[in-house]
Amino acid sequence: MPRLRLKGVSKRYGATIALGRGDLTLMSGEVHVLMGSNGSGKSTLSKIIAGSVRPDDGVIECDGSVVTIPSPRAARDLGIAVFYQELSLASHRSVVENICLPRLSGTGGLFRNRAGMAAAAAPFIAPFESVLGDGFGLDVPVGRLRADQRQLVEIMKTLAAEPDIFIFDEPTSALDRAQVDCFMTVLRKLKAEGKSIIFISHRMDEIFEIGDRVTIIRDGETVSTSALADTSMDEILRTMTGEEAPGPAVPAVAAAPHVARQPSIKLKVSNLVAPGVNSVSFELAAGEILGFGGLHGQGQSAVLRALFGTAPTRSGDIEVGATRLKGNSPRASIREGLAYVSGDRARDGVIDGRSILENTVPIYALKNHLITASPRSLGTRAADALEQLQTKYQSLFHPISSLSGGNQQKVIVSRWLMAPPQVMLLDDPTKGIDIASKTELFRVLRDLAADGMAILLYSSEDAELLENSDRVLVFNNGRTVRELRGDERTRYHLYHAAYEAA
Amino acid sequence: MSMPQSTSRQRSVFERFPFIPALGILVALLILNGIAEPRSMSYGAITGLIKTYLALMFLAVAQSFVVFSADIDLSVGAILSLVNVVVVVLIERLGGGPDSVLLACLVGVLVGTLAGVFNGLVVVGLRLQPIVATFATGIVFTGLALWVLPVAGMPVPQAFWRTYGGRIFEIPFVFYVVILLAVFIWLAVRTKYIIELMAVGDNRLAAYQSGLPVTRIRIKAFALCGLLSAFAALCIIGDTASGDPVVGNAMTLYSVAAVVLGGTALSGGSGSLLGSAIGALILGLINSFVFFAGVSSEWQNFAQGVAVLVALMAGVLVTRRISK
Amino acid sequence: MTRLSTSIADLVRTPLVVALSLILALLLLGELLSPGFASSSQIMRLLIVASILGVVAAGQNLVILGGREGIDLSVGGVVSLSAVIAGNMMQGSDAGIIPAILACLATGAFFGLLNGLGVTLLRIPPLIMTLGMLGVLQGLLVVVRSGIPSGLAAPGLARFVTQPFLFGVPGMIWLWGAIGVLMALLLRRTLFGYRVYAIGSNENAARMAGVPADLIRISLFVLSGMFAAVAGFCIIGYAGSSFSNVGAQYMLPSIIAVVLGGTPLSGGKGGYTGTMAGAVLLIVLQSILTTLNIEEAGRQFAFGATLLVLMLFYGRGKALRG
């Protein structure tokens, strides 16, 4: 008998169908991978199981009997615990308090018991003992931990609920390899104990390493469930996207032709030091796409953000074109011709709840010192920029939140194209957007580079990075450790360089 | 755990006791008062200060509970007024004997708690913005208070205010109440509830996803707020010895100020109950210092205003520096 | 057809429409209970009172739109102070009008600037900053009032505020209308307006898009102080002379008017047109309760309860469960 079964579960928000027909059968002692492109509904499906989203329709069976899961609390009582991608931690509370939080009130007594809580948390911290890193401590407020440490705490909190069914929604996105290995060991142990695990990840290697079966969701509907041993990455991708394999996706760039003729330097960075950045120097020529690679969180993003003036402190020399960048603020950087596109759209890009027009024009307005806003004349210009990226929208006056993630990101890029910069800083720009939009985005970036724009690209997807960069700088611990050119731009060399120094 | 023990321990002293900066300000103000007017530090003067500001101390602690969960209650003053008139009128109706006083006080505490629960249901149950919703419920409570006692002035039996202003075993009665409040705070911060409450204030959605009964936790905070506001009302009755349907309304914003002075962030999730009580005393000491420092009467309010503003700003800045 | 019906349904749910229909309903009710309640002269009177609240609410609206828990509790203090300043400077003479309005505006701008600097440079939460400033202003009020005899409104100002000015409508209401138009233009047809909404919706993203968020927020507080000052100036025209702490009654109602007008306290959406309707709604409601001739207790109770019911129409938070 399956541990958990979902049949025809659906959820709609107004006119938008978040999940059309979700089916899932979860057995004991398996790691069940849930896959689907972004917006396909896998998060909605897991949130329905978690009790934090109310389904409109469908049947949920737990151990053979039909159940409703009206709240996360009810899910917990059914033996379900969830690792939330966006984390569910209280930043002012200590590590121990966070780990014990879900079970706090269930254990009787009015008063807390510090020693008891620490003892209760200990077995769940122990498996990660060797990879916790500096600054981790039982009494340290979670808000003071690094991103990877917070993610570990969320994992520990999920484990501490001691459920029978685990849902892990992107649990490893901030972890390094050693931390992932510890986590995989824990998962194997849980599997051996007969627990059921729903696993969502964008890391294909992990999926094949730990997964038993895979259920694929496309456009809100479950399309297939199969054993991972009987399938391949290629087949999964085909099922996920509903497309045939796109040959050699983007034609790899030939060894940058621009370098041959005396290039004009668009960006020169010397001894840049900022939080997470440890003396970085490089030059970027007009028409060049320079990639930042390496393990996640080694300073790639920190360099880009520091260049754009969002780091609290910064030292070193930055020259854009022929002028030296003085002020440390986005406005100063914009004025000198820098542009920045963040992968974290919700935090850094999208002005939520406002119209597409208002989201497209701010840079143009700033550079042209506009005082009044005429929706008609601004609209024409904005429409042109949006057209360049083939952005799909109904009306410029609709809120930006009405667009899909990919189209929202196109709006953000268009924002910069309305008044083209000299240098574009792309900080994992395709995070969480669909493949068609990615392709479109990189086609336009190529064109822009061909017209002489200089581009810095950090991508968390190695293939994307290698395919689109003329050169790749490999980062480790806030420094550049190697430069990959020409034929060296391969995953092998990338990881070789990244781990060599690690 | 492998961690740099020393630095994190130093930090955690302030983190575990967020009232320390407030305590510092309190001591500084005591010294300033002592310099300006040595008599202001006499036993009698301190007793008088506490007698006057005990109500605000309770009210500030009351406000803290809702602020911890990132809510706010702008009706605490109105609840105080309502309980004040309910108790005074009940004592009168029941004949004014010791039994009637006790019964009236119990009813008053119940009324305050119910008012708090009502706030909780309105804000949490109906999902209204706490600032505007509790402003509206405050008007409702004021209406009820005016219905119970339309004009100020009904006196309470002598025994009531004699006790409040008197001594037991040579120690002023109000000191016992302070100790009672301290014990309450000592117990409250050791409950599991306060951890859950802080988690709710820290990140409401995360707390819900963690399986906490967020709605119940928030309503409980409003109920506790009402309960303690009722105790504040009893102190006011002891101090003023009469019923007044609007006596507490001006105290609402002072309770918020005291909470902030005590090192609690209005954004919720962190702070200190003890700090809030100290914050109330700070407000009292600022007023007395301005008086004793010889500021001319017309400038006194201004000087108080400036001092409170500066203290508030300093409180916010210091608290933030520590939690960094 | 369905599209039409959904757009009608949307329209019915907009705060502006809700507020306007409630105003109409209340006026009808008032007329039924006490004939003459909805007469044109009575409506003018109501509008004059509403316009003063509405002007205060304009500044409040801007500060709230700018987000980051924007709120201005000091408006009450500015209203009181500028009423006293205006009275003292005019002393019943028309020649004093111009100096008085300038002095009021400067006062409002000054304290708004202080609020703005505290909120941006020192990052003091607006509630705390403006609460502290309220105390300072109330203290200053005592200083300004003492020693100087209470001032009188210039006859010109009193006429402007209370007497028909153009097409039988008092100047105060024209002024409010003009402010309404200017606010709409400011918010919808200027980059400043775009930027106000931008910092209110997502300040971080706005900064990344080159919006000078601190500068914008400071100007919002300055504008709020100035609007409050204008209101204080006009109050003395309405009341004839300044009286103690007249502004206290505008502090929280100005926030309620904004909320009833469909601008949530979280900022970033809404606008002033709704707030104007919210201000009228509040005043009509208060007036109807006065007309009912019931005791103070019942009036307060009914007012508070009605506000609670009205709030159910707007800005309810999202449920934690999707």
From TrEMBL, chain A:
A molecular-function term among this protein's GO annotations: ATP hydrolysis activity
This protein's UniProt keywords: ATP-binding, Membrane, Nucleotide-binding, Repeat, Sugar transport, Transport
Pfam families associated with the record: ABC_tran (PF00005)
Domain ABC transporter: residue ranges: 4-244, 260-502
Family: Belongs to the ABC transporter superfamily.
Protein name (Swiss-Prot/TrEMBL): Sugar ABC transporter ATP-binding protein
From TrEMBL, chain B:
Single Gene Ontology MF annotation: transmembrane transporter activity
GO cellular component, one term: plasma membrane
Keywords assigned by UniProt, alphabetized: Cell membrane, Membrane, Transmembrane, Transmembrane helix
Topology versus the membrane: Multi-pass membrane protein
Name recorded for this polypeptide: Sugar ABC transporter permease
One Pfam family in the UniProt entry: BPD_transp_2
Localization per Swiss-Prot or TrEMBL: Cell membrane
Record-linked CDD domains: TM_PBP1_transp_AraH_like
InterPro entries assigned to the protein according to its UniProt record, in alphabetical order: ABC_transp_permease
Transmembrane segments: 17-36, 42-62, 74-95, 101-124, 131-149, 169-189, 221-241, 247-266, 273-295, 301-319
Signal peptide: none
UniProtKB/TrEMBL annotation, chain C:
Protein topology in the membrane: Multi-pass membrane protein
InterPro entries named in the record: ABC_transp_permease
Subcellular location: Cell membrane
One Pfam assignment: BPD_transp_2
Signal peptide feature range: none
Domain of life the protein comes from: Bacteria
Residues passing through the membrane, by range: 12-30, 42-64, 71-90, 96-114, 126-145, 165-187, 215-240, 272-292, 298-315
Protein name: Sugar ABC transporter permease
Molecular function terms, GO-annotated: transmembrane transporter activity
GO CC terms, sorted: plasma membrane
Top-level taxonomy: Bacteria, Pseudomonadati, Pseudomonadota, Alphaproteobacteria, Hyphomicrobiales
Keywords: Cell membrane, Membrane, Transmembrane, Transmembrane helix
Biological source species: Hoeflea olei
